[in-house]
From TrEMBL:
Domain of life: Bacteria
Protein name: Secreted protein
UniProt-annotated stretches for the region Disordered: 57-84
Amino acid sequence: MDTMRGPRGTALTASALLGALLLAGCAKPDRTEIVTWTDEHGRACTGVAVIDSEDGDREMTSIDCDYPPEGRQPGRATSAPLAG
């Protein structure tokens, strides 16, 4: 016997879906920042840090490092949120 048929089953399904949407809507989104730094070889590096909203863990992606042009020094390390 299928208990999910009829108005009662439809109401239960709708309630479950609404509850799931409300819970998902309450979650704080992760932050994404552009980060620059100088590595141990003197290269200027840029990467994207994804900061987990629940525990603050950082994951670096899209890392790109290159030596600065002749006669130039890399700037100071920075971190800035990505414009959304």
